[in-house]
């Protein structure tokens, strides 16, 4: 692919992306280009151009942030010792007092 065609493709995809409030992914962008602008691009080509130029829908960016935050939270999971020495399996009376400790805090 020549440089001029590549720049034209980038401009076309960026134009569709901006017109639609940064919400279209590559499949919908390809369909939109083919139907409304009569510009024929392969969906894989659109995907590659969007990846190389960091054009991503906003909901995907937010989703990736949430995934990375959840991964960090799972790595920082501390186990605290049982300070009260709870033995819930030994409870025999119906209305006995139960104590517990806090094992997980955000």
Describe the structure.
It is a single chain. The chain is mainly alpha-helical and 106 residues long. The chain has a domain at 3-75. The protein has helices spanning 3-19, 26-36, 43-52, 58-75. Helix 1 (3-19) packs across helix 2 (26-36) and helix 2 crosses helix 3. The protein is rod-shaped and about 80 Å long. The two termini are 51 Å apart.
Amino-to-carboxy terminus distance: 51 Å
Give me the strand/helix succession.
HHHH
Whole-number mean pLDDT? 77
Q: Give me the count of strands.
A: 0
The main sheet comes to: none
**What form results from the Cα inertia axes?**
rod-shaped
Q: Give the low-pLDDT segments.
A: none
Q: What share of residues is helical?
A: 40-55%
Strand content: under 5%
- Please count the helical segments: 4
Radius of gyration: 27 Å
Q: What tags apply to this protein structure?
A:
106 residues; mainly alpha; rod-shaped
Question: What's the layout of helices and strands?
Answer:
Blueprint: H1 3-19, H2 26-36, H3 43-52, H4 58-75
Helix pairs in contact: 1-2, 2-3
Compose a concise summary of this entry.
The chain has 106 residues and is an all-alpha fold. It has a domain at 3-75. Helix content is 53%, strand content 0%.
């Amino acid at each position: 692919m020549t440089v001029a065609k590549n720049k034209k493709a980038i401009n076309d995809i960026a134009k569709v992306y901006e017109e639609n409030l940064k919400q279209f992914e590559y499949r919908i962008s390809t369909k939109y280009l083919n139907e409304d602008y009569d510009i024929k691009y392969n969906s894989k080509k659109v995907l590659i151009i969007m990846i190389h130029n960091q054009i991503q829908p906003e909901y995907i960016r937010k989703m990736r942030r949430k995934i990375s935050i959840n991964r960090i939270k799972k790595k920082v999971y501390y186990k605290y010792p049982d300070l009260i020495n709870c033995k819930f399996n030994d409870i025999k009376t119906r209305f006995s007092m139960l104590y517990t400790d806090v094992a997980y805090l955000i």
